[in-house]
Design brief:
Elements lengths: L15 E8 L2 H11 L8 H6 L9 H15 L14 E2 L10 E13 L6 E11 L5 E6 L7 E6 L8 E7 L2 E6 H9 L3 H6 L10
């Protein structure tokens, strides 16, 4: 695999990543809905206004697709990501309307090595999208825990120094050195270091 900027070792618990912004047009809402979700409120402004959504609105699946594009552009295409185990739930809390500006954000909640494939590791993330009114409409709840996304990344070999973003602790911004964290992991017992858990861990992954 060609060298990538982001690998398992480059993510640190508590760090956040801005996914940038996305402008949503009426044309793309109608185009997506015409092919994949041809409900009236996604195809016609008047039908949208007559619905509980209040205007021409993007399909929830279109919202997910836009989020995925933002994720890819922000870092995923320059990473060792091998996909994800699945989606547990997605909640669309507010409609995405034509003319909205979306902003995405990720927070790293946890990381662990795969038990069955130790060259891979799970990065557990919480993700969200907000519109220009700063209303949280899509807490993306994936994988194993509430409000969590788990993505699978290959490990970097050999490890290198890398600072992933900034962590906010008690109002103070702290730079995180992933190499130092990796060094602490290396000092753990072999079972902990390999599996990310103790020897009594019974999870298949």
């Amino acid at each position: 695999m060609t060298a990538k900027t982001w690998a398992y070792e480059d993510f640190v618990e508590g760090a956040s990543l801005d996914l940038g912004v996305k402008q949503v047009s009426a044309a793309e809402i109608i185009e997506f809905a015409s092919e994949f979700d041809a409900q009236p409120m996604h195809l016609d402004e008047d039908a949208g206004k007559a619905s509980i959504l209040g205007g021409l609105s993007a399909s929830g699946w279109h919202t997910c697709a836009m989020f995925m594009r933002m994720l890819c552009d922000a870092f995923l295409l320059d990473s060792t990501c091998q996909g994800a185990p699945g989606v547990d739930q997605v909640k669309w809390k507010k409609p995405v309307l034509a003319g909205d500006t979306l902003r995405g954000n990720l927070v790293v909640l946890a990381k662990r090595l795969s038990r069955s494939k130790p060259q891979l590791g799970f990065i557990t993330m919480r993700s969200e999208l907000v519109n220009q009114r700063a209303l949280d409409f899509l807490p993306r709840r994936l994988a194993w825990r509430d409000a969590v996304a788990a993505l699978l990344f290959q490990r970097r070999s050999p490890p290198r120094q890398f600072v992933f973003g900034q962590q906010h602790i008690g109002g103070t911004v702290v730079e995180i050195d992933a190499h130092a964290v990796a060094g602490r992991e290396q000092r753990k017992p072999a079972a902990d270091r390999r599996f990310g858990r103790g020897v009594d861990d019974r999870r298949r992954c």
